[in-house]
């Protein structure tokens, strides 16, 4: 059973879901930071918020890169195979090329699918004037602002983690597509060598 699972994971990786405990909102009264350290706490909280935003941008950037790269590679492979099928008689090596193209297409579809899921619009909480234009002063104002930013960061983290999961799956299928492309190139080289008089001229 473990061998089957290993083989399945090798050819067809699946996303393992992990149930994470729910996170409760941070309330201003639960912030026990000393008054003189509140400004530093606010600064660090905002840095965490910015870090999550950067993580989101990186995931979306990589997803777009995967979509562009895999689309170009697959288009070239499809074009080459189509020409060979039209102009050549049936051969074992040609059959292998078509089979590799099939696997490449499947992996490409999965890569693009998960990349698109990573790019899907989801609930994302941004800072607005309502978070800091509040009727509070002194430490109370700082604590309310810290809690507002921290809660948005935690909620965004859940959304971004889901995007990262899809990005990881896209990367897994992208790696398998690259391996198929490499094998495809070697088979194509063997096909042309066998079809030419290369061995006779040596």
What does the model show?
- The protein has 202 residues and is mostly helical.
- It has one domain.
- It has 6 helices and no strands.
- Helix 2 runs antiparallel to helix 3, helix 2 packs parallel to helix 5 and helix 3 runs antiparallel to helix 5.
- The longest helix has 58 residues.
- It is elongated.
- The model has no long low-confidence stretch (mean pLDDT 82).
Give short descriptive properties of this protein.
elongated; single chain; 6 helices; 202 residues; 76% helix; mainly alpha
In a few lines, what is going on in this structure?
The protein has one domain (28-201). 76% of the residues lie in helices and 0% in strands.
Number of strands: 0
Instruction: Look at the structure and give the mean pLDDT.
Output: 82
Strand content: under 5%
Coarse shape? elongated
Q: In angstroms, what separates the terminal alpha carbons?
A: 50 Å
Q: Can you summarize the main beta sheet?
A: none
Structural class: mainly alpha
What is the total domain count? Answer: 1
Based on CA atoms alone, the radius of gyration comes out at 26 Å
Unreliable segments of 5+ consecutive residues: none
Helix content: over 70%
- List the secondary-structure elements in sequence, H or E: HHHHHH
What is the tally of helical segments?
6
